[in-house]
C-alpha cells in the first residue's frame, strides 16, 4: 500500500546556479536535522555525465509526526542516500533520494528532475515525484 | 558540514573545495580536460568508506538509481 505524489514547480535561478548550489546545500538554516553529508561515489561517465551518490545522516529516527508511535529504543540516526545524474550537454539533473534506515517502517523515495524552464531560460523547472509506502497497517491507512 | 567519519571531515572539506571549483569552472562549461581532484577524492574516500564499515551503515547492494527502476506512476 502506498502513495504517489507529483508536482512541478520552478526556481528563479539558472540551471547552472541550481546545480552549483546543489553541491553546497548543506548546511543551511532549514537543515539543522542533517548531521553529516558525504559523497560516497562519484564518476564522470563516458558520455560526460556526472554521477554521484551522497550519504546523509539525520537526527530524527522517523518523520516527526511518526515519532510518538515508535519504540524509544529504535536507532537514533536516519540514513538517506541520494543518487544524481548531471548532464551538462542536455542541461538536465535527475536526483533520487531514499531512506536506507527504517525502510520497512516507512519508505520515502523522491525523484526530482531539474531542467531549464521552457518559458523562461533564466529559471529552472523542477518536477518532483514521491513514493511513500509502509508495511505497517495502521500507518498505511494514515498515508492514504 | 561534517563527515560521517569524524576523522574525515578535513579531507572532505578539502575535496569539496576542489570539486566545487572544478564543477563550476570546468565541468558545467563543457570542459572535458580532466579532474584535478582525483588525489584528494581518493584520500577522502579511503577514510569515509572505512568509517561507513565501522558504523555498519547499510549502503551495499543498491544499484545506482536502483530503487526507482520500474516504478509505477500511481
TrEMBL record, chain A:
Pfam families membership: PRELI
Top-level taxon in the UniProt lineage: Eukaryota
Residues forming coiled coils: none
Domain PRELI/MSF1 intervals: 2-144
PROSITE patterns cross-referenced by the UniProt entry: PRELI_MSF1 (PS50904)
PANTHER family cross-referenced by the UniProt entry: MSF1/PX19 RELATED (PTHR11158)
Stated name of the protein: PRELI domain-containing protein 1, mitochondrial
The gene coding this protein: PRELID1
UniProtKB/TrEMBL annotation, chain B:
Keywords of the record: Disulfide bond
Name of the protein in question: TP53-regulated inhibitor of apoptosis 1
Domain of life: Eukaryota
Family, as annotated: Belongs to the TRIAP1/MDM35 family.
InterPro entries documented for this protein: MDM35_apoptosis
Source organism: Xenoophorus captivus
UniProt-listed Pfam families: UPF0203 (PF05254)
Record bears the keyword Disulfide bond: yes
Catalytic reaction(s) noted: a 1,2-diacyl-sn-glycero-3-phosphate(in) = a 1,2-diacyl-sn-glycero-3-phosphate(out)
